[in-house]
Amino acid sequence: MFISPTCKERGNGMNSEKLSTNYMICANYQKVLRKENGARVPQPMASGPTAFIPEKEIAQDNPVDGHPSLLFLEEYSTTGHPDNTTKIMALHPQYLESFLRTQYYILRMDGPLPFEHRHYLAIMAAARHQCSYLVNMHINEFLQVGGDSEWLSGLEYIPQKLKNLNEVNKILAHRPWLITKEHIKKLLKPGENSWSLAELVHAMVLLAHYHALASFVFGSGINPEIDQDTSHGFRPPVVSNFCLCSNTNESHVEDVISVHSSPGTSDSVSELEALMERMKRLQEENEEEEASQEEMATRFEKEKKESLMVVTGAYEDEWIPTSCISRYVDDPSFGYKDFARRGDDQLPTFRAQDYSWEDHGFSLVNRLYSDIGQLLDEKFRMVRNLTYNTMAIHEDVDTTTLRRAIWNYVHCMFGIRYDDYDYGEVNQLLERSLKVYIKTVTCYPERTTKRMYDSYWRQFKHSEKIHVNLLLMEARMQAELLYALRAITHYMT
After folding, report:
1. Which residues are catalytic?
2. pTM score
C-alpha cells in the first residue's frame, strides 16, 4: 500500500491504532503497522498484471504483444499501453475488441453526458465496491478531460445533478430489483438539476459497466498499475490528495501463502471427468424430453432458495473505510442482500419473457442513446457464444450447457428467470466451490480471495477461469440494465 504525501500529513502524530481508522487496510496490515510502531513504508507492487496467475503463465498464453488481431488496442487505448485489465482480457482477443470498443464509445465518443461527468460516474460506481484500482484510474482520466479538482474532495463538492444519482447508483450496484419508475420520475422531474432520458440512459450504462468491471478486477486479482517510467517499483500518487491503497492487492494477503490442491491431483482429474459426463448426459436428456412448465418453475424456485445457502465464506478482516474511497460513497452500509430472503415478503420474480434484453432492453437503449444498444448486444453475444471447444486438456467439447448454467445462475441470484431453462442443470454442473466464487465475485467482489479462485476447476487453464469472469461480468451488467431499463419503460408507459 502506498500512502500519498497528503495522507501522510494527516497521519503525523497518530499512532498505528488511530491510523487504521483513516485508511482502508486489512487486519494483517494493521498488525504490521502496530509491530513497526506506526512506521509507514511503501510496499513493492506485486509483479505481473494479476496476483492470481503466475506472470510466466500469462506470458505463455497471452497474445497481447505483437499479435495481429490485437492491433485495435492502439485505436482504443487511452494510455498508450495496455493496462493490467486489458492484458488479462487479452487471453480472449475476440471478446477484448468488443469490450474496448464499447468502453471507448461510452467514455470517448459523442454522447449525452459531458466527458468529466462520465469519468466521475465511473469513480462513483467503482467506489461502491471499494475498487481503488478503477477509482484511481478515473481520477486521472477525470483531470485529463478538464474535470474540476474540487469534485475529487467528495460527493458534497459535486453538482446537485450528479448527487441526485447516488440513490440509483447504490441500488443498481447492490439490489437492482428495487429500482422503480418512481426513481426515474424523480430524476426526470423538470427543474434546474433534472436529467433528460438520453442522459439518464447514458449514466445507467456507465454505472452498470463499472459495477460489473469491478467484479472482473477483483475476480481476476488485478494488480495496481506501475508507471512505466518508475524505476523504483512504486507507483507515485496520482494526485497528492488521494491515496493508492488497493484492496485488489491487499485482500489476498492471507492467501498468498495458502496451500491448495495441485492441478495434477487425482481428485481434480476425477472432478473434471465427472463434470464432462454430466454435461454429456444433460445434452442427451434435453434432446429426448423436456420438463413441464410447472416443473421448470419449481426448479427455479428451488435454485433461488438454495442460493441463500451459498455462503461467501468468513470475512474476518473487515475493511475500514478510507477517506480516499468513502468520500465517493453515499450510504456505505447499503449492500447486497439475497433476492430470496428468509422470512421476508417474496419479491416478484423478473420473468425474462415479460421483459428481455433482446425484445425490449436493446431497442429502448438504442433509441435513447444511439448505437450503444448494438455495441452492448454484440458484447453480450460474444461472451455467451465464446468457445474454443476445449475443457482443460480435452478437445472437441461442447461447453454450451456449462456457459449457460453460469450465466443463468448469476441472473437467478438477481431474481431473473428464463421460462425455457431447466434450473436443475445449475446444481448438476456448478460445484459448490464454484457457486461460492460466482456469488462472491458477482455480489461482494471486494471479498474475493486467491483461495476462492484456486478452489474450483483445479484442472482448468487460467484462460478458462478468466472466461468465467467475463461471463460473470457481462451477466451482472445485463441484469442491472434489465432492471433499470424496465423501470424507464414503466415510466414512459
Report:
1. 131
2. 0.83
